Amino acid sequence: MPDPALRLRQICLLARDLEWTSSVLSTAFDAPVVYQDPRMAAGGSLINTHIRLGDSFLETVCPTDLAWQQSTTQTRLLERHGDCGYMAIVQVPDVAVASRLMSVQGAGIGIVSGNWNVCPGSPGSGLAGVKSGRYVLGEPLPREPGAISGVNVQYHPRDFGTLAEIEENWPGQDVFPRNKGAYFPAGNRWQNGVDARPHGGVTTGFAAVEIAPRDGDPEEVCRRWMNGLGAGCSIDPAQPTTLRLAGEQTMRFVNPEPGGRTGVVGVDLWAAPGAYRKFDTLHICGVKWTLVEVS
Length: 295
Fold this sequence. Notes:
The protein has one domain (about 5-290): Roll (2,3-Dihydroxybiphenyl 1,2-Dioxygenase, domain 1). The chain is built from 7 helices and 16 strands. The radius of gyration is 18 Å and the shape is globular. The protein has about 300 residues and is an alpha+beta fold.
């Protein structure tokens, strides 16, 4: 059985117009924007928003004018494909183990980026005094009394079919579906709204992500994720392109359509229980969104 912490926790999209895209997503999924990362904006090339879907997050990233002037990876991707799925983020129980395993999959291109974060306080208390640094492959998540901590590590899309990220945060990443523990990508105040509104009227979070690798056979890429994440995830022999995580979540790998998009091309969302079903499928930001019932 998968470790309960092994979950698809975040999907990231890439868009030309941050405000318009975020507004459309927030309206379509009846979910609020809970965070814009000032540290990302301070870098000068990217700005973002995070929308909370239950205790999971939908991020939209947008290049700045400076990025367009410099022709960054993100602007070139937008020029080729338009708005699109950009990254899949999986929460792992032990980043020290998973970071090593992920780094040797496929061609072993390794880490694109990685950071650790430590902040005095508790989940929900904000990010005043946060410290961060470059993550060293194989290092454990730092845990300090009276503080929260998190590590994120990204890997090249050539090895994993899309830009891939693993996350470990502390404390509290093992309590689902109403997790209120630390989760640094979305800041540290979103937890304060979970009890009042656990989720919106459309979805409680991610059921699956569908990835179309540009390079590599879908079965092989699926095995790379399984071998990299570890922690009890598995592939059903009858479905060799589907990886099973905790909480009945899955990752599916498919061949891209001729001339079609690659990377994150589809996301399944758990339908909110008892809510009016507002749609079956939608296409937003180059991704097909499908509402599915909780089994």
